[in-house]
Amino acid sequence: MFKLTQQLAKLANVNPRIEKHGDKNVGACDLKIEINLANTALDSFNPAIRPFLYRPANESGDQPQLELADGGEQLTGVRMPHLSPLVLDEKWPGYTVRVSASLGKAKPIVLEGAELSRFRFEAIEGGSVKITFAVAAHPTGPEIGKLSDLSVDGEIEITVEPPKAEAQQALDAVGNDEREEEEAAT
Known about the structure:
Blueprint: E1 4-21, E2 24-38, H1 49-53, E3 54-56, E4 75-78, E5 86-88, E6 92-101, E7 109-124, E8 128-137, H2 141-153, E9 155-161, H3 165-185
């Protein structure tokens, strides 16, 4: 599961909107987050992504191969430099996201029950990956204003916590029921 703990990131966009919940209008917003991480972060999505995007260094005279303490193989060269960023078409509900100014002086805005989606992975030579993703949440009006203010500077500190085990099992059960219904319909 994807998670971040007090990582510096860029809040690239805040899109306030209204959702209809029955007859009731509910405030919502979408955040676009950009973050550069070590490419090992890709393993939390799918262990096949990193070896697809990266290769060992020195295959074509680039930087020297890094040696890992555990003797494992470090993939730092971009395998296909002209490949467009890889997009993951999956939604991950039930996350808790904490956003604050990059210096962490202010109390963070806590977005519970957020949905992560529109993951995009851009391989960077040297073993980094730029991950861009969307966070759909239901902050209060004042929180939306604070998030908009944070997007002006752009640099934030973000923590992304996956759903708790019990909640994740319930979400998985709902997802399995939906997939079974879709398969029965085809």
